[in-house]
Amino acid sequence: PFDWYAEMREDRPVRYDDDRRCWDVFRYDDVDRILDDPETFSSDPRLASAIDLPPEEEQSPILETMLTTDGDRHDRLRGVVEDWFRPRAIAERAGRFEAIAADLLDDAIDGGRMDLVDDFAYPFPVIVIAELLGVPSEDRPQFRRWSETLVETPTDTSDDAMEAFQRRQQQASEELADYFEAKLDARAREPRDDLISVIAEAAGADRLTGEEALGFCMLLLVAGNITTTNLVGNAMRCLTAHPEAMERVRTGDVAMESTIEEVLRYRSPVQALARVATRDVELRGMDIEEGDTVVPWLGAANRDPSVFESPEQFRVDRAPNPHFGFGRGTHYCLGAPLARMEARIGLRALFDRAADIRRVGEQLQPVRSAFIYGVEEFPIEFRP
Ligand code: HEM
To answer: Where are the domains of the chain?
Structure first.
């Protein structure tokens, strides 16, 4: 998409797309302005005039979360788990995450060849979040299917395909809801050191409604999986394309931290967000009306030459690097410290076990999603 972004940033930085019935926004300053003003640009898709949502009783609890609410309600919801996700709290669990990474890689690595996504980048964050939530290992394969279905976006927009797609999503969402409902009940009676217990406790103390508690579990499950998978996958895609940079990272000549930030900028796992205008508003001379959907393209802003020097270059030591990979403002990614740590631990664990990592095969299959950026598979070769 990057050539397209460059063209749009230059020629049509704010434009209306008749097919998708939304505004697209490409420049850094404009994206910043949108994310910085949640009163005007709301995260609640129910305010959109272009979207026909199913009737209330059929709506997924995922609409009752911090991600899709604003103002006091957003802050109340986010407050329930904020402490859990702080860098220091997350760091205390590093040892456990290292053990999970080691297990996965030790299984995958002996042949000198693996699929980085299937064998590692996919299962790693699923297991981490399942553990944090308090989901036992025998339920994980089912989790993988649910979370995949829930983040899928339709590529075939014919009526039949859309209908089948909506049915699939509806079913996955109901099954997952039943599962979490049972778990929340169990934890309300017998709390443990996990996130479901924190959520169950807040619900018990009337700080969350039942719907909200359920939405919470679903959000935490889906928000951090595909995104982190693609951060790890995109990181190796960048590094195998720049072997000299990989060597600098491996030897510690350049920090893992700045490398990961550059991947978040250069190949952002989340390329775009969606907002709804709550009033008529002008943006770069364009008249946006109340109820219009507005799409800030993070991936385009992250390569805006007015902010980033040589934005089309991948520079592992780029500093400063004020990218939008985790968004900005009140909805700034809650899981950012966790995602950063997973990426650090994952890449380090891989470098500890594999040398001369090379990409094999020419064709890469992009992830089937309009907003998520990454590849379905990434076969690599290396010296164990
Ligand atoms: C929000 C990206 C990992 C949980 C966001 C947003 C972005 C993002 C761009 C802003 C959404 C918006 O403004 O509408 C990413 C990326 C990740 C990642 C690129 C991995 C590389 C995670 C993880 C978790 C998580 C591991 C938790 C387990 C959340 C939550 C929100 C969020 C709960 C909503 C925050 C709010 O609305 O206040 N993420 N995320 N994310 N992320 Fe992440």
So the answer is: 2-383
Give residue ranges with CB within 6 A of ligand 1: 43, 66-67, 78, 129, 219-220, 223-224, 227-228, 231, 269-270, 273, 325-327, 331, 333-335, 338-339
Q: Among candidates 74, 18, 14, 22, which has minimal Cα distance to 49? A: 22
The answer to whether 172 and 145 have CB atoms below 8 angstroms apart is: yes
Tens digit of each residue's pLDDT (9 = 90 or more) over 190-211: 999 999 999 999 999 999 998 8
Structure tokens at 361: 């095969």
User: Under the phi-then-psi rule, with left for phi > 0, alpha for psi from -120 to 50, and beta for the rest, what region is 71?
Assistant: left
- Residue keyed to tokens 């999986």: 225
Q: Report the alpha-carbon distance of residue 258 to residue 266 in Å, rounded.
A: 12
pLDDT single digits (tens) 301-345: 999 999 999 999 999 999 999 999 999 999 999 999 999 999 999
**CA 227 vs CA 26, 63, 181, 208, 296: distances in Å:** 21, 19, 25, 26, 18
Q: What angle do CA 23, 26, 27 make, to 5 degrees?
A: 130
Q: Whose CA is nearest to atom 37 of ligand 1?
A: 67
Q: Which residues face 317 on adjacent strands?
A: none
To test the pocket of ligand 1, the residue of 83, 128, 227, 234 to mutate (highest count of ligand atoms within 8 Å of its CB) is 227
Identify which of 144, 351, 156, 110 has the alpha carbon closest to the alpha carbon of residue 229. Answer: 144
Q: Which residue minimizes the CA distance to atom 39 of ligand 1?
A: 333
Ligand 1 pocket test: which of 83, 333, 341, 372 has the largest number of ligand atoms within 8 Å of its C-beta? 333
Determine which residue's CA is closest to atom 43 belonging to ligand 1.
333
The 10s digit of each residue's pLDDT in 137-186 is 888 888 778 877 877 767 777 888 888 888 888 898 889 889 999 999 99
According to CATH, the topology of domain 2-383 is Cytochrome p450 (1.10.630)
Question: How many whole angstroms from 219 Cα to the centroid of ligand 1?
Answer: 9
Between CA 80 and CA 208 the distance in angstroms is 9
The whole-angstrom separation of Cα 356 and Cα 257 is 21
**CA separation for the pair 77, 348 (Å, rounded):** 34
